[in-house]
Amino acid sequence: MFLMENSLVKDNPLFLPLNKDKTVYDGFITVQEVGLKSHPECRSIPPPQYYSQLISEMETLGWDKLLFIDTQFRTLRLKAEDSSARQHILTIKLKSKHPAEAPECSADLPVPLALTWTAQSTLEQIHSQFLLCLQSLAEFWDVLDEIDTKTWILEPEKPSRSDTMRRIAIGNNVSIKVEVDPRHPKMLPECCLLGAEHGGSCLWSAGRNPDSSVLHNLRDVLEIEFPSPATHEKSDFNVECGICYSYRLEAAIPDQVCNDPHCGQPFHQACLYEWLRALPTSRQSFSIVFGECPYCSKPITVKMAAQKS
Ligand SMILES: [Zn+2]
Ligand SMILES: [Zn+2]
């Protein structure tokens, strides 16, 4: 029995046993089947006309728009330029039944990408729809580009085209968090002031001049002059945490500040919470710990950091 089965497999390397005891066989299987079983995504190998269709669509669109295509000819990256000469990328994953089945499209946008596809649609049409979508967001990116070039951005570290939030440095340990609405970018954004003596107070301001830029309106409403790359170094603002001595702790920046005007030492929320909780002189009430600033011994409070899931 054993001899027979061993010689069977030896003589026929593609004759594979189906069970552990090597007693059940399912006839010959081909190399292609083995390949398909281990790579289920290969099951849908497109028909030859897929490739001719793709080439003719790319010729209509223009090969200069193609940034990348994978070796399977299934994923394409197309470039697109908006009216302010910003470069954008549209990623298209074609289905094997292209163009009958709609491709999956994605891009770095602050709003969901909504493109319409019918069985008659082409890459050129999808590219034009994408350009229209970019056009509708041009004002939003103009507002953020002005903020990004004329102020010091503390967060996000490297803003992407989909980021709607900016934390702007105002002074030593004081920053403002603004949220720009991609659909109403010229509206004065929702602002949240962070730092000593402000402790995260949120401001909603009514007055604004529709002829001024968002940055100008912010400056007028808050009555502050934003430090800019022209007037300040970034190191003036990214002051490290007084407990761990670093600026970034995972994604967090030191946003808890000692309220004593002579101290003003910043800390990460997680660092300050752990530090105060470990001291016998501290007192905890629900999620808030009351203790003393490790630098100046003046009273300081911190909320328990939100649990990361
Ligand atoms: Zn820290
Ligand atoms: Zn202090």
UniProtKB/TrEMBL annotation:
Gene Ontology MF terms in the entry: ubiquitin protein ligase activity; zinc ion binding
UniProt-listed Gene3D superfamilies: RWD domain-like (3.10.110.20), Ubiquitin Conjugating Enzyme (3.10.110.10), Zinc/RING finger domain, C3HC4 (zinc finger) (3.30.40.10)
One Gene Ontology term from the biological process aspect of the record: protein monoubiquitination
UniProt entry keywords in alphabetical sequence: Metal-binding, Zinc, Zinc-finger
Start and end residues of each RING-type domain: 241-297
GO cellular component: Fanconi anaemia nuclear complex
Entry protein name: RING-type domain-containing protein
